[in-house]
Design goal:
The structure is a single chain. By secondary structure, the chain is mainly alpha-helical. The chain contains 18 helices and no strands. α3 crosses α16. The structure holds phenylalanine. The site of phenylalanine (PHE) has 15 residues, from α1, α2, α10 and α14.
C-alpha cells in the first residue's frame, strides 16, 4: 500500500496538495477567457453545475480508487477488479492525457515565468500600450526564450518531486496555497477599485444564454474536469496518499470549493481591470499576456508591482499543478518497479522534449508550418487536453466505479470502514455515479463532437 508510510501526513496536507493540483492555469488563464467566449454568467452557471454534480463525484471516485487500491492508475483498476486486467487501459489512457497536459503546461508556465521575469526587470513596463501584441508574438516565436524558461520551470518542479511526497509536495503546497489566496485577493481589491470596474463585473455575471452551444457545453465540461484535475488519474495517485482516517467527502468538498472560488476570484481580478483600461475582454488565450500588461501599464507607478504580483500568482499556481502532473507520471513508473528518482528524471526529459516541440509551433517558430487539419501543435494539444480527453477518461472511470467495482468496497472506503456515517451514500452511488454522471458525460461528448 502506498499510503501512510509515504503518503500525506494530514487531511489539511491532502487539501492543500490536491487544491494545489486543481488550482492552476486552468483557473487563472483559461477559465476567464472561456467565460468570455461562452456567455459570461451563463457559462458560470453551467460550470458550477458540472463542477458540483460531475467534477466532485469524480474527485471522490478517484480518491476512493486510489486509497482503496493503494496503487497508481495502471495497477489500481485491475487491483480492484482482478477478473479483467484490461481495465488497466483506463489507467494508461490517463497517463497519456497527463503526459500531454504536462507538456502544454510547461510551455504556458514558461511564458508565465518569462513574463514574471520581464515584469521584475522592467522590460514589460517600458513597452508602449500598442506594443504588447507584437511583444507576445515575438516572445513565443523566439528560438530560445520559451525554451529557457520552460526548462527553469521544469527544474523547480522536478526539485519538489525529488524532495518526496511529504517533504516536497505537501510542504510546498502548504506554503504556496495560502500565498496564492492572498495574492488573488489583493489583485481583486485593486481591480474592483478602478474607475469603471462595474462593467467588468457585468460582463462576468450577466448571463447570455444565446452563446451556449453544444460545443460550448463540452468545452465547459472539459474545463470543469480539467480544473479539478480529474479524468486522467492524477487524483487516483493523490488518493493513494490520503491517510486512512481522512474523510473523503469533506476533503473533496474543500478542494472543490477552493478551486471554484479561485476561478471566480480570478475572473473578478481580471475583467474589471480589462474594462477599466478599455481593452477587449474576448482576448482568448492571449488575454493574460497581451491585454493584462496594458492594464498594468495604465495603473501608473504601482502598475509594475501589480504586474509582478500577477505573474507570480500565475507561476505559483502553475507550479503546484505541474508538481501533481509530474508526480502522477513518476508514481506510475515507480509503481511498476522503477526507482522513483530515476522515474522523475526520465519523465522530465521526455516532457522537456515534447514541450519544446509544442513551444516551437507558433508563427515564426520552427514547427509553425506543421498544421495538420489547420491547427498547429499547440492548438491540437490544447483542444485535446482541454475538451476531449478528460471527459473520455472521466466516463471510463465513472463506469468502472459505478458498474464494475464492488459497491461494498466503495462504501467501506467512504465510511472509513464503518467509522463515519454516510447516509448520503445511496443518492451518491445510485443516482449520481451510476446514472447522472455517465449520462451527462455521454451526452456532452456526443453532442459536442458531432454538432
Ligand atoms: N487542474 C489544473 C488546472 O486547472 C490542471 C491539471 C490537470 C493539473 C490535471 C493536474 C492534473 O490548471
Amino acid at each position: 500500500m502506498a499510503n501512510n508510510k509515504t503518503g500525506f501526513t494530514s487531511s489539511f496536507g491532502v487539501v492543500m496538495a490536491a487544491a494545489g493540483s486543481a488550482v492552476g492555469l486552468g483557473n487563472i488563464w483559461r477559465f476567464p477567457y472561456i467565460c468570455g467566449q461562452y456567455g459570461g454568467a451563463a457559462c458560470l452557471f453551467v460550470y458550477l453545475l458540472f463542477v458540483f454534480l460531475i467534477g466532485m463525484v469524480l474527485l471522490m471516485t478517484e480518491f476512493v480508487i486510489g486509497r482503496c487500491s493503494g496503487h497508481a492508475p495502471e495497477k489500481a483498476f485491475p487491483a480492484l477488479y482482478p477478473k479483467r486486467p484490461s481495465w488497466k487501459l483506463v489507467g494508461l489512457f490517463g497517463m497519456f492525457t497527463c503526459f500531454l497536459i504536462l507538456a502544454i503546461y510547461l510551455v504556458i508556465s514558461g511564458w508565465t515565468l518569462g513574463y514574471f521575469w520581464e515584469s521584475v526587470t522592467g522590460t514589460l513596463s517600458s513597452i508602449a500600450n500598442d506594443g504588447f501584441k507584437g511583444h507576445f508574438e515575438a516572445f513565443v516565436a523566439s528560438p530560445w526564450k520559451p525554451v529557457v524558461f520552460l526548462v527553469v520551470f521544469l527544474a523547480f518542479t522536478l526539485l519538489v518531486i525529488l524532495g518526496g511526497v511529504q517533504k516536497g509536495i505537501e510542504k510546498v503546497s502548504k506554503l504556496l496555497m495560502p500565498i496564492l489566496l492572498v495574492l488573488v485577493l489583493l489583485l481583486c481589491v485593486r481591480s474592483l477599485t478602478l474607475p469603471g470596474a462595474s462593467k467588468g463585473l457585468d460582463y462576468l455575471f450577466h448571463p447570455d444564454f444565446s452563446q451556449l452551444t453544444w460545443k460550448g457545453i463540452l468545452a465547459i465540461l472539459g474545463q470543469a474536469l480539467f480544473s479539478l484535475s480529474v479524468g486522467m488519474g492524477a487524483m487516483i495517485v493523490y488518493g493513494s496518499y490520503i491517510p486512512r482516517d481522512s474523510n473523503i467527502l469533506k476533503t473533496a468538498t474543500w478542494i472543490t470549493v477552493c478551486d471554484v472560488s479561485i476561478a471566480v476570484l480570478a475572473g473578478i481580478a481580471i475583467f474589471p481591470a480589462v474594462f477599466a483600461a478599455g481593452q477587449d475582454p474576448a482576448g482568448g488565450p492571449g488575454l493574460v499576456y497581451q491585454v493584462l500588461p496594458v492594464v498594468f501599464n495604465s495603473m501608473g507607478t504601482f502598475g509594475q508591482i501589480f504586474a509582478i504580483l500577477f505573474f507570480l500568482l500565475l507561476s505559483l499556481a502553475a507550479l503546484t499543478s505541474a508538481i501533481s502532473l509530474l508526480e502522477t507520471l513518476t508514481a506510475w513508473l515507480s509503481d511498476r518497479g522503477m526507482n522513483r528518482k530515476l522515474a522523475a528524471v526520465l519523465v522530465s526529459v521526455a516532457e522537456a522534449a515534447l514541450g519544446v516541440f509544442v513551444a516551437y509551433s507558433f508563427s515564426g517558430g520552427m514547427l509553425s508550418h506543421f498544421t495538420p487539419g489547420g491547427m498547429n501543435l499547440f492548438d491540437w494539444v490544447d483542444k485535446l487536453t482541454g475538451a476531449y480527453l478528460p471527459p473520455i477518461g472521466a466516463l471510463l472511470t465513472v463506469l468502472f466505479f459505478g458498474w464494475v467495482m464492488k459497491k461494498e468496497d466503495i462504501y467501506d472506503e467512504l465510511s472509513n470502514h464503518g467509522v463515519l456515517k454516510v447516509s448520503w451514500f445511496k443518492v451518491f452511488y445510485h443516482i449520481l455515479v451510476r446514472f447522472v454522471a455517465p449520462a451527462a458525460l455521454i451526452i456532452s461528448l456526443v453532442a459536442g463532437i458531432f454538432t
